[in-house]
Design goal:
Oligomer: single chain
CATH superfamily: Spore Coat Polysaccharide Biosynthesis Protein SpsA, Chain A
Number of strands: 13
Radius of gyration: 20 Å
Bound molecules: 1-O-phosphono-alpha-D-glucopyranose
Shape: globular
Distance between the termini: 60 Å
Number of helices: 12
CATH class: Alpha Beta
Number of domains: 1
Structural class: alpha/beta
Helix content: 25-40%
CATH architecture: Alpha-Beta Complex
Length: about 325
């Protein structure tokens, strides 16, 4: 079957319009900060991480977002709700700028939620989306990373998936010592001209978190996926894998073995990984430096502060 025939068979050629954000994790790396506050609501300058992610989805044309939440994380949903009392106070004061900022999250997309009772892995989390997305293709955006808004990745992934009807992943190149933190792919050159301007490769295999000497390449799966509806059946057939969890990587591997086309786009833009304290701090500093309002003063202060460490080792 050619790609086009397969696309007709598996997909209507329509771009996915729904996204799923798994966000039920316990965030142990950020304790005690995340004891009562979900890590997805930690602020990067003045917006929570999760808002950047929903903004990224909305900018790519996604109008429907399902948040997979867990115990103690309902405040994530409140962030995307209206706040009539706060809004009327700001309106009375004529503070139109803050009013717009408060309303913005509720205007981005339709937000739906469901609860993952027990965190048994990323594949398990995604399986909760089945009744919401039905048989259609959909995007998965992990709740602790986002891409630079001036170098978007999701639109090209959605275009590619609408063409192939299969699995579409995003890759970054990592150092050998980093392969154990990611799903790693084996790849070969893709058919020419699939998506203009994107570096597309064909995926031939996937391994979850291999050691450097077992990694098939240096291409690591990052937290953006566009998946066909048949992933749900594959997740049901997936046995616990790395970390004794139901891995999305393993479910995608099953589909790959069954001939479902899988492609990846190599991303070379800025990616903010807020899942760990160091990456989180880097995101805050980078985004603060870019801000028109805070940037000039913050950059000057930062230069002087860092300069003050010159010659000191700790
Ligand atoms: C998950 C996936 C892994 C992927 C990573 C990207 O791992 O299982 O394949 O490379 O996200 O951030 P986690 O970070 O949830 O352990």
């Amino acid at each position: 079957m050619t790609l086009d025939e397969d696309a007709n068979h598996a997909n209507t050629g329509r771009r996915a319009v729904k996204a799923v954000i798994p966000a039920a994790g316990l965030a142990t790396r950020f304790l005690p900060a995340t004891k009562a506050v979900p890590k997805e609501l930690l602020p990067v300058v003045d917006r929570p991480v999760l808002q950047y992610i929903v903004e990224e989805a909305a900018a790519a044309g996604i109008s429907d977002v399902l948040l997979i939440t867990g115990r103690g994380k309902t405040s994530m949903v409140d962030h995307f709700d209206r706040q009539p009392y706060l809004e009327s106070r700001l309106e009375e004061k004529g503070d139109t700028e803050r009013l717009a900022a408060v309303r913005r999250p509720s205007e981005l997309a339709e937000i739906y939620t469901c609860r993952q009772g027990e965190p048994l892995g990323l594949g398990h989390a995604v399986s909760y989306a089945e009744s919401h997305v039905g048989g259609e293709s959909f995007a998965v955006l992990l709740g602790d990373e986002f891409m630079d808004e001036t170098a978007p990745l999701l639109p090209a992934m959605l275009d590619l998936q609408a063409k192939t009807g299969g699995i579409v992943l995003a890759f970054i190149e990592v150092k050998p010592e980093e392969t154990k933190r990611y799903g790693i792919a084996s790849v070969e050159p893709a058919e020419a001209g699939l998506v203009e301007g994107a570096e597309v490769v064909k995926v031939t295999g996937l391994v979850e978190k291999p050691k450097a000497d077992q990694a098939p390449s240096n291409l690591a799966v990052v937290g953006r996926y566009v998946l066909p509806g048949k992933i749900f059946d594959a997740i049901r057939r997936t046995k616990p894998g790395s970390g004794n969890e139901i891995q999305l990587t393993d479910a995608m591997g099953l589909l790959l073995d069954e001939g479902v086309p899988a492609h990846g786009i190599i991303y070379r833009g800025l990616r903010y990984d807020t899942g760990m304290p160091l990456g989180y701090l880097q995101a805050v500093v980078q985004l603060a430096c870019q801000r028109d309002d805070l940037g000039p003063e913050f950059r000057q202060w930062l230069g002087e502060f860092v300069g003050g460490f010159g010659g000191r080792s700790g």
